[in-house]
Specification:
Layout lengths: L3 E6 L15 H14 L3 E4 L7 H6 L9 H9 L6 E8 L6 H14 L4 E6 L4 H7 L7 H17 L2 E5 L4 E6 L11 E4 L4 H9 L2 E3 L5 H17 L8 E2 L4 E4 L3 H9 L2 H9 L12 H4 L1 E3 L1 H13 L4 E7 L4 H19 L1
Parallel strand pairs: 1-2, 1-12, 2-3, 3-4, 4-7, 7-8, 8-9, 10-11, 10-12
Antiparallel strand pairs: 5-6
């Protein structure tokens, strides 16, 4: 079974996974064009609007969080085959779902059908509260309802929706996305996403999940897909992992522990990755020498992975990131694809 491999794009990662400053527009373009040249399937950026508390405590300079859909419109004009995915688009922070749908459909046309959309709640409740104080909203329900609303707009002529969080009436939505079925993924490790994917999505994006845990959830996902009359082969299992390739396992671990990426995973161990906190992150992710990484990737394929999505390379400057992308493309991908 072949797998897809894609690279992370630091649209909103300064201070979180990379130092400040890191990803100016010229660097984003270099990374995207490098990914296309090396044969990566796609690049996947993330979606942030306000600075997280632990980042504020460490850096006096605020990070630059580039709006992801606007960024992709610019990058799509300067690439030809590379696909672009949102890993993830935080729907609860985008309260006007019709405007969001219009941006998505427009971008799908402007990129000649090279867009994929991952959605989720976002890793930091504090960020949502900064935008919508005291809302009391259940972000998981918002995401689920938001995807239903997107499908309604993308598929109906005169679209109406009356949900708890999203409402619109008699919207004539055109143009529809260029792709006959624009791929939509649910991102996150919450087991509720298994049902959500089975009901309405084209893929699932967990993060930093060990192979044994992933295998159990993939089996459950496939059971639910079959029960709904859907083909499991048509739904992507697309986890995200951190990568650092070293000449030895020890040198890779040392470099990873010196990176901002390491601090980021430590922060996530208190939120979206709390169920994995019992296992050292370096034992879950693709960190080590080539042989170690290939062995872990093969185990993940056996567990049901179909797309190594938006791999995040631990690096403290852009040149190191580009080098890591090249080493992985040349020495790892041919052995796992």
């Amino acid at each position: 079974m072949s797998v897809l491999v894609s690279a992370g794009l630091p649209t909103g990662m300064e201070g979180l996974t990379y130092p400040i400053p890191f990803s100016d527009p010229s660097s984003l373009l270099r990374i995207a064009q490098h990914a296309e040249k090396l044969g990566y399937h796609s690049v996947w950026g993330n979606d942030h609007m306000s600075t997280q508390n632990y980042v504020r405590a460490e850096f006096s300079q605020p990070p630059r969080f580039w709006e992801i859909l606007t960024t992709y419109a610019w990058l799509a004009a300067q690439t030809t085959t590379l696909r672009f995915g949102t890993g993830i688009l935080v729907l609860p922070m985008r309260r006007d779902i019709v405007v969001t749908a219009k941006q998505i459909a427009t971008l799908d046309h402007l990129s000649d059908g090279r867009l994929e959309i991952g959605v989720g709640i976002g890793a930091y409740r504090e960020e949502f509260e900064a935008l919508w104080p005291n809302s009391g909203a259940h972000r998981g329900d918002m995401v689920e309802e938001g995807v239903d609303a997107l499908h309604t707009l993308f598929n109906g002529k005169d679209a109406s929706f009356d949900g708890k969080y999203y409402k619109f009436h008699n919207v004539q939505f055109s143009p529809k996305p260029l792709q006959t079925r624009l791929p939509i993924y649910f991102g996150g490790n919450n087991p509720n996403h298994i049902r959500r994917v089975a009901e309405a999505a084209d893929g699932w994006i967990p993060a930093g999940m060990p192979a044994d845990q992933l295998r159990v959830l993939v089996d459950r996902l496939h059971e639910e897909l079959v029960a709904r009359g859907r083909d499991p082969k048509a739904v992507q299992v697309a986890p995200q992992f951190v990568v650092h390739v070293g000449k030895t396992k020890e040198s890779a671990l040392e470099r990873y522990r010196q990176s901002q990426m390491c601090k980021h995973l430590q922060s996530l161990a208190k939120s979206t990755l709390k169920d994995q906190a019992r296992i050292p992150m370096e034992d879950i992710n693709l960190i080590g020498d080539v042989e170690t990484i290939v062995a872990r990737a093969q185990a993940l394929k056996q567990a049901g992975v179909t797309h190594f999505l938006g791999l995040y390379f631990a690096a403290n400057d852009v040149n190191e990131l580009l080098d890591q992308m090249q080493v992985f493309a040349e020495e790892v991908i041919p052995r796992i694809r």
